[in-house]
Specification:
The chain is an all-alpha fold and 156 residues long. It has 8 helices and no strands.
């Protein structure tokens, strides 16, 4: 979990969470449709990241034989959903409206999307997406290339 938090700091996912925490529904004292929509976005991004990660693992002969990361990722994603749900209770107890929930859920959405883009770039699919996104995730893409294709050229 510490590694995930460190990645969220380096990728500025916490800033994304803070930006998402600002809308007017932030002032709601109880769960709203916006809370459900945000959780749905989080789950959709988890699915995109998982599918792209599975495809990447299947293209890597090294990780295909040794990787149990998919199971770990599903457990991590489940725990993140639990944390986000607990944030609603924290908001209720601390009377912070929906700030804690929006902040953490937004940050997790940002971090998972960052990972998804890293998978997409490592797969060589970057030509189908806006290039400025890949300037943002250069370090994530390089990390994924080293993880799944050690010893290969990083310029994919």
């Amino acid at each position: 979990m510490q590694r995930l938090i460190d990645k969220m700091i380096s990728s500025h996912s916490f800033l994304i969470g803070l930006t998402i925490a600002v809308p007017t529904w932030l002032y709601s004292d109880h769960p709203t449709i916006e809370h459900a929509a945000m959780m749905l976005v989080l789950i959709i991004v988890f699915i995109l990241d998982t599918i792209s990660g599975i495809i990447l693992a299947h293209k890597s002969h090294r990780m295909l034989k040794t990787s149990h990361a998919g199971i770990d990722a599903l457990l991590r994603d489940f725990l993140i959903v639990v944390v986000c749900t607990a944030c609603m209770a924290i908001d209720f107890v601390l009377k912070t409206k929906s700030f804690v929930y929006a902040f953490f859920t937004g940050a997790f959405i940002g971090q998972t999307f960052y990972s998804f883009l890293g998978n997409v770039a490592a797969l060589g699919w970057a030509r189908y997406y806006p290039m400025w996104l890949f300037d943002w995730i250069q370090d994530e893409m390089v990390a994924k290339l080293h993880k799944y294709f050690p010893g290969k050229d990083d310029k994919k």
